[in-house]
Design a protein that fits this description.
alpha+beta; 6-stranded mixed β-sheet; 15 helices; elongated
Length: about 425
């Protein structure tokens, strides 16, 4: 059984990049005994321990640190040979400073190192780096992921990358790179129209280099100079409709119209929609407007008049509430829950939206807090770009609190919000 890390430290990570160096400098010097160190070294390398004679190649060191961090943390000791003999390092201060730089500049997200310098009576100094993997996944600056297996590290292949990232960090699903996507899968008109709205010269500088723009400008792709792996967010936002449906089939939305007030009524129409988020937003609203009237103002009350008509009157809903509800549906889906589809059900008297959302950790406090605008965003990149007018949407502001307030005023009925079985449900009543 591999040995766990021999030392733990109760640390809170700084919230900003600027405070990183101050944080490192102000940390109290950890105390590691020579006995502890000798015990580690005598056991040799394993999943949680790597031994180095010296720090000579920062790129290889970065790979080793990434591997330890992605494998639940570990320790790297400098000044020890492969024969487990303590040789020491010549300039321990320089080694520690370089390790801090590597952890900050060569690894993403930056790692907060815990460093020790242990001196022996013969004058030899050993530097110990403790690594914690609190913010997995970690990758090198050129976009490579590594794991440590026994005494060796290995790069995670593109074939297994998505599954591994999905497993360890499902709440950041939008950042998972898609191995089968390439530049031809993107809608150039949508992508470069968005870019041009912010920068008139962006087309001239990039010359329609989709891979470079997604990597360096939007931070929605990874890979070295010869590799290109766009993220889920990039494909959902700017992918061609047919390719989005193929690459991310669980991102489709199913629409149902029932001739009654619940799901037991006769099903009138079903439609499955797939494509990028802008296409989905417009398509969902068009389907809703096929059966409902979306109004800016509350309709005036009419006196009751008996009629023999068998045709059910169209439901009236607040325009901005429905737009905001559809937008929230698209950007706040927990796409890691592949087995639960997004459904929008239209009844005679209500519109019900059912979205995948991990119940564990979300209810009950969080489900109450979102009523007051305190959100737990699953997909901040998607939400940021999708809500911008430059992307092509026209979304009102206010979030769920606005939906609850205006919909109740519009229909005199309280909006129902509830979660169960990894589903978030929102039911808006019409007039």
């Amino acid at each position: 059984m591999p040995r766990k890390k021999f030392r733990y430290s109760q640390r809170s990570e700084p919230s900003t990049e600027r405070s990183f160096q101050e944080y490192i400098q102000n940390q109290p010097a950890p105390q590691t005994t020579r006995t502890e160190l000798l015990r580690l070294i005598r056991g040799g390398e394993d999943t949680y321990l790597e031994l180095k004679v010296k720090l000579s190649n920062s790129e290889k060191i970065a790979k080793g640190i990434v591997a330890l961090a992605n494998t639940d943390g570990g320790t790297m000791i400098f000044g020890v040979t492969d024969q487990l003999r303590i040789e020491g390092v010549r300039n321990p201060e320089e080694v520690q400073a370089e390790l801090v730089r590597i952890c900050r500049e060569e690894i993403y997200p930056p790692i907060l190192p815990l460093l020790d310098c242990i001196s022996y009576d013969n004058g030899r100094n050993v530097v110990v780096l403790d690594v914690e993997g609190k913010r997995r996944p970690y990758r090198t600056r050129d976009g490579r992921f590594y794991l440590r297996v026994g005494a060796e590290k290995r790069e995670i292949s593109r074939a297994e990358l998505s599954d591994w990232l999905n497993e360890i960090r499902p709440l950041n699903y939008e950042n998972i790179p898609l191995q089968h996507a390439d530049e031809t899968d993107f809608d150039d008109g949508l992508l470069w129209t968005f870019a041009h709205a912010f920068d008139d010269d962006v087309l001239g500088r990039n010359v329609y280099q989709t891979d470079e723009f997604l990597k360096k400008d939007l931070l929605m792709a990874i890979g070295s100079a010869d590799e290109f792996m766009p993220t889920v967010a990039a494909v959902l936002l700017f992918g061609k409709n047919e390719r989005v449906a193929e690459l991310l089939p669980h991102s489709k939305i199913t629409m149902h119209r029932y001739a009654g007030e619940n799901g037991n009524a006769q099903l009138v129409e079903t439609s499955e929609l797939g494509g990028n988020l802008l296409f989905l937003y417009d398509s969902v609203l068009r389907f809703i407007e096929r059966y409902c009237d979306l109004l800016k103002d509350k309709p005036r009350k009419k006196s009751a008049v008996q009629t023999n008509s068998i045709v059910q009157a169209r439901g009236n809903y607040h325009l901005f509430s429905i737009r905001e509800a559809v937008a929230n549906t698209l950007v706040h889906r927990d796409l890691a829950l592949r087995e639960i589809p997004t459904r929008i059900l239209i009844y005679d008297n209500a519109i019900e939206i059912i979205n995948p959302r991990r119940t564990n950790g979300f209810v009950p406090p969080a489900s109450r807090a979102i009523r007051y605008g305190i959100t737990q965003r699953l997909n901040p990149q998607l939400a940021s770009i999708f809500s911008k007018r430059e992307y092509g949407t026209n979304i009102p502001k206010g979030g769920l609190p606005m939906i609850l307030r205006t919909s109740k005023y519009f229909s005199d009925k309280r909006v129902e919000v509830y979660t169960s079985n990894d589903e978030f449900k929102l039911k808006i009543y019409g007039v």
